[in-house]
Amino acid sequence: MTTGEMVATVFKYGGISAAAVVGLYAALLGLLSTPTFQVHVVYLHKIQMTWFKDLDVPESFGFMRNQVTPFFLESSDGEKLYAWHILPIELYRKHEVTLLEEHVDFISDITSRHAFKLLRDDPDARLILHFHGAAGTVGSGYRVPNYRALSAGQPGKIHVLTFDYRGFGKSTGTPSEEGILLDAHAVIDWAMNTAGIPSNRILVFAQSMGTAVSVAISNHLARSSPPVVFAGTVLVAPFVDAATLASSYRLAGTIPLLSPIAKIPLLFTYLQRFMRDKWSTKDRIAQYIRANEANAEKYRMTLIHAEDDYDVPWDHTTTLFWHAVNATTPVGISYDELEEKKSETKKDLGAAGTVMEWHTEYGTIREEILKTGLHDVIMGNPVITMAVMRIFQALDPSFTCQVD
């Protein structure tokens, strides 16, 4: 074979390969425009990540006997949502004898359980509503260490309620933006009306996709009459909106979904018309801040992101922080102006990253950019415990870890 023939062969088969890749990518785009395929790609709800374990046996995830109470609560449209009520470890220790005597079968009426009564009947109890990310269940991955980190600051008082959205794990239904917001409302209704915990003793914690859910429902409640505002909100690895995330998201940190198309603005704008669920956190976070400022409601929000997060780039948090801060002033502030203020006032913590706080008469918005933590590992780190305690103690300085 001559050199010319070799070159021709390379171009021939290279062209075929390129055409195949383009064809496959075009087919992917076609699938992404269909609602059913979108649901699976956006929510990944069929990926359980709790293989060979039974969610009804929380002990298999490292919990003590009856430290966790699995139960179902119901959404307003009739979907059954699977949930865990998790006791903090020191409270468990104090009531271990009674808890060990209870049977461990799945309970249809959680109000009959001793753990529930410890939450409902303690006027000093705090409750964290946990909104997890896409894929998996309440027992997946780094979520279990996350629950421990959430209550570690006051292990005698901080309960955690975590749940699976519709279509996830044992929960019924199919996920959608509208439906998941009904789920969030059902969880909040359970916390405030069934468990009887007032909003000032409830903290909202969310990670990844859960940040979009929590901001949406918090915004809805803050703009209701009368408004409902929780003790605070902690958002870990949030994203600006679904379209912006899709434009930068890479499967396993390497395989781009829509980033090639995002470089062609007209085409990307056209494709956005087919996105069913928008999850526009940037708009909702601004509305939430404006509502609290207008209603003179006290609020605290912490946004946390790691620079080495390859699932959701950390600049999503800096953008959301700007949208939140911009909403605090009638005249607004440009992104560049805020960056200039950051350079003057943010705390440089070296290998631990940077911290910036924005204070108004009614609220505090805190941005923490960590050097490391990835997308999920961060959830079990002390930074989470500190964020929770910082918010609870801002409302009640006496809320500290007490030793018998």
UniProtKB/TrEMBL annotation:
One Pfam family, short name: Abhydrolase_6
PANTHER family for the chain: ALPHA/BETA HYDROLASE DOMAIN-CONTAINING PROTEIN (PTHR12277), PROTEIN ABHD13 (PTHR12277:SF81)
Transmembrane regions listed in the UniProt entry: 16-43
Species the sequence originates in: Hyaloscypha variabilis (strain UAMH 11265 / GT02V1 / F)
Protein name, entry field: Alpha/beta-hydrolase
Domain of life: Eukaryota
NADP as UniProt keyword: no
SUPFAM superfamilies xrefs: alpha/beta-Hydrolases
Domain AB hydrolase-1: 128-291
Keywords: Hydrolase, Membrane, Transmembrane, Transmembrane helix
GO MF, one annotated term: hydrolase activity
Keyword Lipid biosynthesis: no
